[in-house]
Design a protein that fits this description.
Layout lengths: L2 H20 L5 H18 L7 H6 L13 E4 L2 E13 L3 E15 L2 E10 L5 E6 L13 E5 L8 E2 L2 E5 L40
Antiparallel strand pairs: 1-8, 2-3, 3-4, 4-5, 5-6, 7-8
Helix pairs in contact: 1-2
Amino acid sequence: MTPEETLLDYRRQVATMYARARISRPDAASRHVQFCHDRDELFRHHPQSALSDEQKAQFNGLHYYDYDPALRFEVTVEPIEPPTVREILLQDDGPFRMRRFGQIHFDVDRQAVSLSVYWIMGYGGGVFLPFGDLTNGHETYGGGRYLLDTIKGADLGQVETRLVIDFNYAYNPSCAYNARWVCPLAPTENRLPIAIPAGEMRFSNE
């Protein structure tokens, strides 16, 4: 297959993984275990994996916190007026533009926090939700993690009109694995003043 076809296949597989994660059965913890297993297989074998061939040869699986049901939320996106646009220059890809269109609010251990939600601008577009927290730099990747990137299939769906946000599915941007990737990271307003011990941890092949 051409590189374009393999990338299309990779995105199909990611979308399928998230579709399985949205179903009501089996229980949430079991769905998460299956998701992590499928993601390991994708990283280990797929030609569009974020890992280099050398990393794949030594790959022992990604590391995750144990599933915590308290870190899954169904939230209402509150519109931001006027929306603001942020532009990031990415090596090889050029300018990456995202529009801050809404904000979500939720409580973690009785502390109220909020995150901005972005729309990736360009043909088709998609919802993008990066974040940072106090685990960054020691337990998790220093640049923060992603919760949603619907262009690439990372989408946990909605319950009626509420967006599903589950930190157990937080994952590293590709630049967490090796230097050949350049990624948009969480802006200042999405750096949480608390620790979120859920989702993917720092990458290590050990």
